[in-house]
Automatic annotation (TrEMBL):
Claim: Oxidoreductase is one of the keywords in the record: yes
Domain Galactose oxidase-like Early set: 449-556
Cited SUPFAM superfamilies: E set domains (SSF81296), Galactose oxidase, central domain (SSF50965)
Stretches assigned to the Glyoxal oxidase N-terminal domain: 52-440
One GO cellular component, as annotated: extracellular space
InterPro entries: Gal_Oxase/kelch_b-propeller (IPR011043), Gal_Oxidase_central_sf (IPR037293), Glyoxal_oxidase_N (IPR009880), GO-like_E_set (IPR015202), Ig-like_fold (IPR013783), Ig_E-set (IPR014756)
Coiled coil segments of this chain: none
Name of the protein in question: Aldehyde oxidase GLOX
GO MF annotation terms: galactose oxidase activity
Segment forming the signal sequence: 1-23
Subcellular location as annotated: Secreted
Length: 573
């Protein structure tokens, strides 16, 4: 992969100075940021489909799909295959692909075949590394499909059949500590269910989704769902949230509405992340949720009348385990609706893609926001945002962004039309893939960048909970030992501006020792429980002065997971 030439930064001189300075001083955070605004790289001019849903798998390949009722895509199915689906709405006999597997390391893609409509669906990767995708539209609304990663070209989607009890269109999935997933909401579904199912009837009412439903417009679809460290789920829809115990079907806590009361969920689509989880050995974890952007109340109706209202420029942040939680408001450098929020390996958040006006929906967005914004959660309020360099490609409705193991962010999609439209429209269907490289990847920081040499969690060996983990790494410059950390990031299922199952854990109790010239060991403790880190694959990073190493795939697994042993549907764990 060729990297375009990098701009040089004067900050590097300053950097060296700071390093000398801080090497002699105990310090915690410094101003030695990887300044520079990041870099865009066009990876593929066309992958033949539009990247509307994306999931990175533990073999560094990304499963991407759009929908089967978009019309003919620009990519043929392999080996002359065609889909003959009498219940299909647009083209019943379709020889084009609506899903691809993108190989990050080789920068290549190949067509995959989905059988039923996967439009606006959800998914999660289960502990054995398979993607279990749930729901969709029309003949796909109750379907469950499985993609098992392979290293060759012989794996494809397997349709499990009607694995869901209710129609799940615009629902959110979250992986649970026992290896199942919970699927919450969807259009006109004020309930949730589990996959694999727990017991009949497997549909449980969730009045919160009814209460947050703005009649005729909704504003509560694709709820933002996060697993709290206590095993409960934080569920956000419209402009407020609950803490929910899915084992007893009880609301444990009700959070206030975000000041201003404007909606943040589809189609007034903002985005949200669970900020990095730290001090994992503490009895109560200070989990924080950050919700950014969206559209002011009434925007959707105004768009129908031809007025594109400016998007929200605020973020709201809340400590979800506080006795009296309240939203703290912050202002972004730009207004944004349909942005994607992605955790970066160093704990910062990238806000990327989207529009400055309008809402989600066909033809309903205007003013593409080409500049990503970086958010540094640990900085002082008022100085957390930093505008990044712009892309040249608008990424409007149905665009996506996910973190890759090497620290880049894969960006794709954008199709605000009912079918593929390449000409005569404001925002043509985007078939391209780009990568955004945050400035921590700048070669100027190579001497600060850790390289993982070996780890007790290397390939093939699972790590357990609450255990010591040793990572050996190399840094060519002199390191600042108390500015080294180890993070673990769960790859996300991204669609409609939300990254399901995305979480980052900062592994604590770190102890750094010098092993040899430029070689160090860091010992940390793995997360104490599956409530904090559900079993499965994570990308493990060593971070030094905000510069992350390339990630290492690790698998955390508990022998206690119920579904490893019990469920035949999950027997391949
Ligand atoms: C996709 O196909 C259409 C026509 O079938 C063509 O106009 C368009 O240029 C193609 N787009 C890309 C990016 O290949
Ligand atoms: C598609 O399937 C139908 C039966 O459902 C069949 O009648 C038809 O011939 C098939 N079309 C093609 C092109 O194979
Ligand atoms: C849209 O236009 C109609 C007709 O002019 C008007 O009655 C309605 O109030 C408008 N709605 C909004 C949200 O502006």
């Amino acid at each position: 992969m060729s990297q375009p030439s990098m701009p040089r930064y004067t900050s590097i001189i300053f950097f060296l100075f700071l390093q000398l300075f801080f090497a002699a001083q105990p310090c915690h955070r410094t101003v030695t940021y990887a300044a520079g605004g990041g870099l865009w790289q066009l990876l593929q001019n066309s992958i033949g489909i539009t990247a509307m849903h994306m999931q990175l798998l533990s073999n560094d390949r990304v499963v991407i799909y759009d929908r089967t009722d978009f019309g003919r895509s620009n990519l043929s199915l392999p080996d002359g295959k065609c889909r003959n689906d009498s219940s299909e709405l647009v083209i019943k006999y379709d020889c084009t692909a609506h899903s691809v597997e993108y190989d990050v390391l080789a920068n290549r893609f190949r067509p995959l075949m989905v059988q039923s409509d996967v439009w606006c669906s959800s998914g999660a990767v289960v502990p054995d590394g398979r993607l279990i995708q749930t729901g969709g539209f029309n003949d796909g609304e109750r379907k469950v499909r499985i993609f098992s990663p392979c290293n060759g070209a012989d794996c494809d989607w397997e349709e499990v059949g009607d694995g869901l009890k209710a129609k799940r269109w615009y629902a959110t999935s979250h992986i649970l500590p026992d290896g199942r997933q919970i699927i919450i909401g969807g259009r006109r579904q004020f309930n949730y269910e589990f996959y694999p199912k727990s017991s009949a009837p497997n549909v449980y009412s969730l009045p919160f989704l009814m209460e947050t439903n703005d009649r005729g417009i909704e504003n509560n679809l694709y709820p933002f769902v996060f697993l709290n460290g206590d095993g409960n789920l934080f569920i956000f829809a419209n402009n407020r949230a609950i803490l929910f115990d899915h084992k007893t079907n009880k609301v444990v806590k009700t959070y206030p509405a975000i000041p201003g009361g404007d909606p943040r969920s589809y189609p007034s689509t903002g985005s949200a992340v669970l900020l990095p989880l730290k001090n994992l050995q503490a009895s109560t974890i200070e989990a924080e949720v950050l919700v950014c952007g969206g559209a002011p109340k009434g925007s959707f109706a105004k768009v129908e009348n031809g007025t594109f209202v400016q998007a929200l420029d605020t973020c709201a942040r809340i400590k979800i385990n506080d006795p009296n939680p309240r939203w703290v408001m912050e202002t972004m450098p730009t207004a944004r609706v349909m942005g994607d929020m992605t955790l970066l390996p160093n704990g910062n958040v990238l806000i990327i893609n989207g529009a400055g006006a309008g809402t989600a929906g066909w033809e309903k967005g205007r003013d593409p926001v080409l500049n990503p914004v970086l958010y540094r959660p640990d900085d002082a309020s008022g100085s957390r945002f930093e505008l990044q360099n712009p892309s040249t490609i608008p990424r409007m409705y149905h665009s996506t962004a996910i973190l890759l193991r090497d620290g880049r962010v894969l960006v794709g999609g954008s199709n605000p039309h009912i079918g593929y439209e390449f000409t005569g429209v404001l925002f043509p269907t985007e078939l391209s893939l780009e990568a955004f490289s945050p400035s921590y990847l700048d070669p100027n920081f190579d001497d600060l960048r850790p390289t993982i040499v070996s780890s007790s969690a290397s390939e093939g060996k699972n790590i357990g909970y609450g255990q010591k983990l040793l990572v050996r790494f190399k840094v060519t410059s002199k390191i600042v030992t108390d500015m080294v950390s180890v993070t673990m990031v769960a790859p996300a299922f991204n669609t409609h501006s939300f990254s399901m199952n995305h979480r980052l854990l900062v592994l604590g109790n770190e102890k750094v020792t010098v092993v040899g010239t430029s070689i160090y060991d860091i010992q940390v403790m793995t997360p104490p429980s599956g409530d904090l880190a559900p079993s499965g694959h994570y990308m493990l990073y060593v971070v030094h002065q905000e510069i992350p190493s390339e990630g290492l795939w690790v698998k955390i697994l508990s022998v206690k997971e119920k579904y490893i042993l019990v469920s035949t549907e999950m027997a391949r764990w």
